[in-house]
Amino acid sequence: MSKIVVVGAGYAGIFLCTNLSSKLKDIAEIILIDRNDYHQLMQEIHLVASGFRTSEQLKIPISSLIYGKKIKFIQSNVKKILPDKKTIVLDSEEIEYDELIICLGSSTKYFNIPGADKYTLPLRSIYDASIIYNHISEIIKEEVKNNIVIVGAGATGISLGSALAEMINLSKNKDNIKVNIIEATSTILYGWDLKIKNKVEDILKKKGIRIFHNSLVERVDENILFLKDGLEIKSSLIIWTAGVRGFNIDIEPTIEKTNDGRIIVDEYCKTNQYENIYSIGDIAAMKNSKGALYPPLAQIAVRQARYLADYISEYYINKVVPKEKFDYEIKAQILSVGNNEYVGLLNNYVVSGDIAKMIDEFTKNTYMKSLKTGGKNISVNLYENDFFSQVLAGMTFAGFTFFKSLEKLSK
Ligand SMILES: Cc1cc2nc3c(=O)[nH]c(=O)nc-3n(C[C@H](O)[C@H](O)[C@H](O)COP(=O)(O)OP(=O)(O)OC[C@H]3O[C@@H](n4cnc5c(N)ncnc54)[C@H](O)[C@@H]3O)c2cc1C
Predict the structure, then answer these.
(1) Quick check: CB of 34 below 6 Å from ligand 1?
(2) Ligand 1 touching residue 161 (CB < 6 A)
(3) Is the CB of 122 under 6 A from ligand 1?
């Protein structure tokens, strides 16, 4: 029986495996590998860093997601991939494959800035979030003036800054601690709609966050950040959210990657060198129909996973190589700006308050449902692009909000 091996059980890998297993049944063996035995709900890890969620709330045991499905899970670290031998080297063993899908996500990019990797903390996992939480919990106990510094005003930096400010504002020491966000460009949320940027900047100011625009970091030392314009900021907690690159996995012989370490794939999620190696999610560099790279987002990862599950199963079941390319346009983006506060853009309209909260809840709910059913329920239409699916998605959302409102009324 053919062996399909998926490395990484994040948004891309877990969604791909559950969808593949419901389509392929006994046609191929599906093996999923991850170093952790849990799937991480990354969208909320800044809330772990700020103590509004516990680590356990965001860890979903992989066993519960693949229960009853024909997926073999191996918990191990992937050390190396040997494409010519169709083999993956794990810490625990070596595995051969017929098809390999690489979904190892991303890691922090430090732009070769001296001291950045040594003296700052990253935020790319629940583990990283717990380390930040331990630090901030100590800081809020001390009755001395302190600065928290976040480098990077992208979505991660903004969500983290808002949540930390909220946590600090609830503490006795709120007047002693300031949250600062350092941004190299002239604007926060680079690449987002201007309406959202303005709205979010207002929210940050109300929370007492100081934003430094056009501020390039020159180097970092222990507890001190040096900016190119000569400014020095002392801080006992510096967090680096300024850049993302593809997860650095050893592949021998190497396959084509971007300068940011993302694996270059075509519109079928396939690598240029190997017909049987695919890559999806943050680690994959795929261009959209306008020639721009898809951004590293969970919503892209799950859509690529759903596309690839269809592609591979079509090939395995009907022995036809599908012609349809992956194509997806982002229609909604929601940003967390505090423990229970969201701002977003839906079909070009700014949404906030209860509506934004509801969209966020709906998205998470849909994701979990689709994951558990391997794509077999109606809300999976959210992951499609066509008009019919969009209407269905709208109706499902209306139903969801209706039942949520009833739930609230009955409390
Ligand atoms: C704070 C924060 C907030 C975010 N909010 C949003 C949001 O609101 N909306 C959105 O669309 N996106 C959001 N994102 C981005 C989103 O989390 C990523 O795009 C998404 O996780 C990518 O999915 P993935 O499967 O490619 O990678 P991941 O989800 O990171 O999964 C990678 C998997 O690979 C495993 N792995 C890595 N290396 C190895 C190894 N060597 N051996 C074995 N296993 C390994 C990891 O354990 C992990 O399970 C956010 C990210 C962060 C950090």
Answers:
(1) yes
(2) no
(3) no
Q: Is 108 in the pocket of ligand 1 (CB under 6 A)?
A: no
Strand 284-285 relative to strand 263-264: parallel, antiparallel, unpaired? parallel
Q: Which of 297, 304, 308, 366 to mutate to test the pocket of ligand 1 (most atoms within 8 A of CB)?
A: 297
Residue 373, pLDDT score: 78
Indicate the CATH number for domain 116-242.
3.50.50.60
User: Which of the residue ranges 89-93, 140-144, 389-393 has the most confident prediction, judged by mean pLDDT?
Assistant: 89-93
CB 16 within 8 A of CB 280: yes
Asked if the domains 2-107+245-410 and 116-242 are classified in one and the same CATH topology, the answer is: yes
Output the six-digit token pair for 347.
């079909």
**Ligand 1: nearest atom to the Cα of 78:** 42
Q: Could you tell me the two tokens for 321?
A: 């190589």
* Interval 46-79: pLDDT, tens: 999 999 999 999 999 999 999 999 999 999 999 9
User: Hey, is 210 helix, strand or coil?
Assistant: strand
Expressed in angstroms and rounded, the spacing between residue 296 Cα and the centre of ligand 1 is: 9
| Residue boundaries of the structural domains of the chain | 2-107+245-410, 116-242
Ligand 1 contacts CB of residue 356 (under 6 A): no
The verdict on the CB of residue 104 being under 6 Å from ligand 1 is: yes
Reported residue count of the chain is 411
Alpha-carbon distance 81 to 31, whole Å?
15
Q: What is the dotted CATH code of the domain comprising 2-107+245-410?
A: 3.50.50.100
| Rg (the chain; Cα; Å) | 22
Atom of ligand 1 nearest to the CA of 336: 8
Which residues contact residue 166 at a Cβ distance below 8 angstroms, ignoring those fewer than 6 apart? 50, 52, 207, 338, 339
Distances (CA, A) of 218 to 45, 112, 123, 232: 28, 10, 21, 10
Check pocket membership of 246 for ligand 1, CB cut-off 6 A.
no
